[in-house]
Design brief:
This protein has 469 residues and is of the alpha/beta class. It contains 18 helices and 15 strands. Strands 9-5-4-10-11-13-12 form a seven-stranded mixed β-sheet, with helices on both faces. The protein has a three-stranded parallel β-sheet with strand order 1-2-3, sandwiched between helices. The chain is globular. The two termini are 39 Å apart.
Length: 469
């Protein structure tokens, strides 16, 4: 139904036992449809409504009578709207232009995200849902509501991010990665170098951990033990917090085989599982906005599945160009089932068009000026060093140590000039000494700190991250 009717479909979960319908409502939500669930208080059997709520994709919760009323409003029967979706959308876009910009500005001020680069149809459908849930019929009125309701701003932000994911989504594609793509990549990758993976728009972490599991299996099959780092990023901090905890319900692990579940998770209570430490250590979660933050460099595999489809074409092409810059030559790009490399075909060779697996083959004319990961080339004898030619007064270090919070002082090139407040415990120096902060920060801090530095330099404002793991 979701595949055929898309945003026009509706799913309703009523009283019942078990978790029937949980996967279906995820598909409806991902397609832009509306999901209703009966509230627990009015349910004779609350199993299905409770399990529906756990998916976090339910748009409206109420009694059967309230659901019927909301269904009529969703269908437009009480508003006298045009009969076709096309007419409704055209009129909505015309009438909503100014209040929509006000809403975008409010979201940008609160979260630093420009939703104007997302497809209008997707944005307007999700705005409609929030308006329905708040019983607001006019978008101008909804824009005014947001001005005095920070909690609703957060609800809208989370709904617009379309946070739908699962373990091993499209199992056939993951099997191809495990059996063909990754063995080939690892066979041509030096064993003494870190293998880097970027999971973009990782949501609550299922895909990043799926990649970690198959990488562990591939290395075990090849009797290899090498350094692997998966950078899992998203703009939704609440999702990142969930991902970092690594706890998932039984229902969330439905696509994980019993063997993998026993090997890579441990039981946590009666209803859930937690990722084992060896897999958790492979993944670094950090906030990152692919549309505005610089891409990471020297990646061997990038997985970005089912995010591009929500962007305008110009933003899709820009994002794909960033991926090309981020990938090493012959690196792999893994997209969602409805996505492609569009106008960047010259930069990517199709490995499997049906499974949406591509290999970087070209070079782009311009690359990011700033890398979030250390460059591979070694410093030359004449390169800038972290020490200053003018010695600090002997009193300055004492004053700084007493008055400054824990932190680092870096120059415009990212070279470390000074540490404060015991910040040295966050550094790791192995092998040749280097001064660039990206090369000596602990892995779990590297992405967050370098993203903050670049964002602060770009916007000329302080940047604060919390719950970095």
């Amino acid at each position: 139904m979701a595949g055929e009717y898309g945003a026009s479909c509706v799913a309703v979960i009523l009283s019942g036992t078990g978790s029937d319908g949980a996967q279906g409502i995820k598909a409806v939500h991902a397609a832009g449809g509306v999901v209703f669930a009966q509230d627990v208080d009015s349910s004779r059997f609350d199993g299905m409504p409770r399990n529906a709520a756990l998916t976090c994709v339910v748009d409206f919760v109420g009694s059967p009578e309230q659901i019927v009323s909301a269904l009529f409003k969703t269908a437009g029967d009480e508003t006298g709207e045009p009969d076709t979706n096309e007419e409704r959308e055209r009129l909505r876009e015309k009438d909503a232009l100014e209040p929509k910009q006000l809403i975008f500005r409010k979201l940008s001020d609160a979260f630093g995200i420009d939703f104007s680069q997302y497809k209008d149809g997707t944005i307007l459908r999700r705005l409609d849902r929030r308006m329905m849930m708040r019983a607001v019929a006019d978008m101008s009125e909804y824009a005014e509501l947001l001005e005095g309701d920070p909690e609703e701003v957060d609800h809208l932000y989370r709904d617009l991010l379309i946070d739908v994911t699962s373990f091993f989504r499209n199992p056939e594609a993951f099997s191809y990665l495990a059996e063909t793509t990754l063995p080939d990549l690892l066979a041509h990758h030096p064993e003494n170098e870190e293998f880097r993976v970027w999971s973009v728009a990782c949501a609550s972490g299922e895909e990043a951990y799926s990649l970690a599991m198959i990488l562990d299996e591939v290395m075990a099959n090849r009797s290899q033990k090498r350094s692997v780092r998966i950078f899992a990023t998203d703009i939704h901090k609440s999702s990142l917090k969930t991902a970092s905890a690594g706890y998932y319900s039984n229902e969330k692990l439905a696509n994980v085989s019993t063997a993998r579940r026993e090997k890579y998770f441990y039981r946590t209570g009666a209803d859930g599982w937690t990722v084992r430490p060896n897999i958790r250590r492979m993944v670094t979660f950090a906030p990152h906005n692919i549309l505005s933050d610089p891409p990471f460099l020297h990646m061997h595999l990038i997985s970005c599945r089912n995010m591009l489809i929500y962007l305008e074409k110009s933003a899709q092409v820009e994002t794909l160009t960033r991926f090309s810059a981020a990938l090493e030559q012959q690196g792999i790009l893994f997209l969602g089932s409805s996505e492609s490399v569009l106008d960047t075909q010259s930069e990517f060779l199709t490995v499997d068009g049906r499974l949406k697996i591509y290999r970087k083959q070209g070079t782009i004319t311009s690359r990011p000026l700033y890398s979030l990961l250390p460059e591979k080339k070694k410093a030359t004898a004449g390169s800038e060093r972290g020490s200053s030619k003018m010695p600090l007064s002997s009193l300055y270090p004492l004053l700084l140590e007493r008055c400054m919070p824990t932190g680092f002082l870096v120059n415009s090139k990212g070279d470390l000039l000074h540490t404060f407040g015991g910040a040295g415990k966050y550094l790791q120096i192995i092998g040749p000494v280097r001064t660039d902060i990206a090369g000596i920060l602990h892995g779990n801090l590297r992405v967050a700190v370098m993203t903050a530095i670049e964002r602060s330099r770009k916007n000329r404002t302080p940047v604060r991250f919390s719950d970095v793991s």
